[in-house]
Amino acid sequence: MAGLELLYASQAPGLSRPQDSLLCFVHWQLVTHQYRALGTGDQPGPNERKSELLPAGWNADKDLYTLRYKSMDDRHELLLKAIMVDTSMILNVMDCSSKQVADLTLTVADYIDPEHLDDFHRVYKNVEELQTRVVTGIISPLGAPKEKGDPRKEPKPEKMVPPASTQDYDPLRIPPWQPLGGRQPSWPDPRDPFAVGGEDLDPFGGRRGGMIADPLRSGFRRPLIDPSSGLPNRLPPGAVPPGARFDPFGPGGGRPAGPDPDHLPPPGYDDMFM
């Protein structure tokens, strides 16, 4: 409690009531949090200056204390009123600029020993609790000003964080599958909840993947069928239209692996000449 003993000693001749000692402690807390006293009363007086000491006549009324304070950075001006009600002191503090108000009620006997008003080392009780209640009750709610020129209380510059890459590296992540040839088949997303059952409605895969397994649609390039296989000469260009159902005249090395187109005729068509 550095500074409180000197403050108490300077006011000791006039500290005749327990509530005077309690308000002296409250004043010291305000001074510790970068406030300085201006004077007494609701209105400013002539030739007022900031001071760490209590102004003259601050305890002239035993039931009502009215003090004004100003922060060191001149951003806050407080009006403090302390009213005695029975054995309790009701503290009301208003920030004159923002009109914010904070209140605190203290039982004098919990923190002041009336038998030792002339002894600083024995007059205060439960000092840590009293200090916590004053700070959290009437100082912090109004925003305590910062001390000028104290580098420890100045905000430190934030460290520059390099921007994250578009895709963070994860050694356990499985990369997406890409088919051979670089062309992605037009298959529906299996995670789409509305894709369930779509293959039953479109078995041949006109719009979707279909329900018939076709190894030729696995992403690999499909070898072309040579319509001239088995003939002594090659057919002229255009003899077989593109996409036509055509069986080569004979076996050849150009026939693709997999099911023959005639193995799976359309359902309901049992024409052997088809």
TrEMBL record:
Q: Where is this region: Disordered?
A: 141-172, 199-274
Picking any one GO biological process from the record gives:
proteasome-mediated ubiquitin-dependent protein catabolic process
For this protein, the record's Gene3D superfamilies field holds: 3.40.1000.30
Q: Where is the PI31 proteasome regulator C-terminal domain?
A: 181-251
GO MF, one term, reads: proteasome binding
Q: What is its main location?
A: cytoplasm
- Compositionally biased, Basic and acidic residues: which spans? 145-159
Report the subcellular localization.
Answer: Cytoplasm; Endoplasmic reticulum
- What are the entry keywords? Acetylation, Cytoplasm, Endoplasmic reticulum, Methylation, Phosphoprotein, Proteasome, Ribonucleoprotein, Ribosomal protein
| Function description | Plays an important role in control of proteasome function. Inhibits the hydrolysis of protein and peptide substrates by the 20S proteasome. Also inhibits the activation of the proteasome by the proteasome regulatory proteins PA700 and PA28.
Return the protein name: Proteasome inhibitor PI31 subunit
